[in-house]
Structures are given as structure tokens and as C-alpha cells.
């Protein structure tokens, strides 16, 4: 047998509740200092430093130094994909749970999945793109972009022909851990969220992964994809 991937090491690192909390707080793709990550995990600075050292050594995090400060981020989108996929594993039956906090409800509605849009709005946009024949589900958890889709994205200001597929493809099906359905990821998903933010349709939170749809965004989503704010449960 050839060399085997060391799944156990990554699984061990992610399994610790404090380390898992740190990793999940970095799923918006931003870099954060150790103090913020310690607060997110509910541990002391000393304990956080130990955890961060292990995550760095295990290849799950990268660190940037600016002056006296060190900022930590996920090692790449592959780590984010693994975390989101792990979060989606669980019973599909309805069980009694405590009501979600306001922040949890905001994340369920719309959030960053590292570099693309996730949550119920991300899934709804993806469904609408499929219903209109702009995307077609393909093998290997990919989406094919149809000629009509290329035209629609172009009218929105996104030139699909200029995008370069990464090793996971151009338009990937990413399993949404709160919705248990797929949303759009890959370079196309990344650029779509970037476009919607730059157009003022979406607004990113400064302090969390949550994303807000602006009034301008609801107007555009209604006109372009038939998505109405009244169809969603919104949290102020």
C-alpha cells in the first residue's frame, strides 16, 4: 500500500470544541488575532495560544505577522469545505432543540462560506439559477453553466469566460450545513458574491459571518431571480 492521508490528525484537531469554535469563526475568510479567537472559543489567551499552535502545525491555519500582531486565517478553501461538510453530518430527523439565537438565525439566513454565499438565501439563489436554466447539476458535484447562464451572468457584470477553474472546477455544488441542500461555490460562486456585494445588494458584517440583503438587493433579486423577502424569515 502507498502512503495514506493522515485523516486522524486533522480529525483530532477539529474534534476539540475550543479549536472547532476557532475554526468556525474563521469561515468568513478573514484573518483574526488570537484575542478574538480566544473570545470566540471561550478560553484564556494562554490556552488559545496552545490551540493555535496545534492548528498551525496541523496545516489547518496560516498566520500573518504585522508589527507586534499575529493574525490567523484558514489555510485555504479546502479547510472551509471540510468544515462545512462536517457540519452537515448529523441526523436528518427533526429533534427538539433550544430556539436559535438572533445571531444563529442571521447565519442560517445568509452567511459567508469562506469566500462564497451560503445559508437559505444562497440555496434559494442557486435553485433559482437552476430553475431558469442558467445552471445544470452535473457529475462530481459540479454545475454546468448554460449559454443562457453565460448571457445572464454577463448582463449582471460577470464575464464567465474570464474565470479560471480551480482544481475543484468552475462552479461547484457545496452542501449547505444548515439547509442540507447545495449552494453555488467555486470561482463562479466567489465572483457572484463579490459582485452582489460591490453592487450593494449584499452587505457583510464586520464582526461575524452574517450577510445582510439590502433593500436594493431585494429589489434586484426579485427582478432577476423572483426571490421575495416575504418568502424568508428575516431577523432584525
From TrEMBL:
This is Helix-turn-helix domain-containing protein. CDD domains: HTH_ARSR (cd00090). InterPro entries: ArsR-like_HTH, HTH_ArsR_DNA-bd_dom, HTH_Metal-responsive_Reg, WH-like_DNA-bd_sf, WH_DNA-bd_sf. It comes from Paraburkholderia elongata. Residues 1-94 form the HTH arsR-type domain. One of its GO terms (molecular function) is DNA binding. Pfam families: HTH_20 (PF12840). One of its GO terms (biological process) is response to cadmium ion.
